[in-house]
Amino acid sequence: MTTESAHPKLIAHRGISRERPENTLPAFLRALELGADGIELDTHCTKDGVVIVHHDDVPRAIAPDRALAGKRIDALTWDELQGFAVDGSALIPTLAEVLAALRGRLDVFVEIKAKGIERAVLDVIHASPAPARCAVHSFDHDAIRTCRQLAPSVRAGILFEEPPADVVAAMRYADARDVWPQDDLIDAALIDAVHGAGGRVLAWTVNRPERATALAALGTDALCTDALPQLQQAFA
Length: 236
Hints:
Blueprint: E1 9-13, H1 25-34, E2 38-45, E3 51-53, H2 78-81, E4 85-86, E5 90-91, H3 95-102, E6 107-112, H4 118-126, E7 134-138, H5 141-150, E8 155-160, H6 167-174, E9 178-181, H7 188-196, E10 200-203, H8 209-218, E11 222-225, H9 228-234
Parallel strand pairs: 1-2, 1-11, 2-6, 6-7, 7-8, 8-9, 9-10, 10-11
Antiparallel strand pairs: 2-3, 4-5
């Protein structure tokens, strides 16, 4: 991803979550169908070490067995988790299933949500059809530092929901080149600092076309959005 394109890259936040259940194969395949430049997804790990794609640490889904309802993902085995239905329709996928289905046809930005799952996530990425099109990111900058130590070839990013005291120092600490600020934290100074350090700025979560065009004018590299068709139209 570069700043030389006509507009920022558009990343579907948890897939096309306004049309399909978020963080599921239907949502990701719909993003591919609509021409997203990438998708962003969330990862946890089951009790028996399977990396799955879901946002919350307790499944936000209908359990197949009442006894499993309310249990954390890391307290469930993959066999137990397979019957959970998101919005009553789509299953919770594994990261391996998602990457196999997409086959490197768009960029995949993998957020690490749980503690201690860095190696498991990286192993799935390395075994995928197109590891070069995958990147990791997290609010946990220590997790990203660990990822870079384990797999220097995998691009990594750090998330912010508050203004960073020194964004370049944070990049250096985590050895990250992607910076993911909440969109209202972005200004020209932040973009200049990140670009000056050889990084790129990926804004989240940008759903208003007027905000998208303003961020584009500042030089933002990518926009993570729930409103992909609307932003595509804004840049058409």
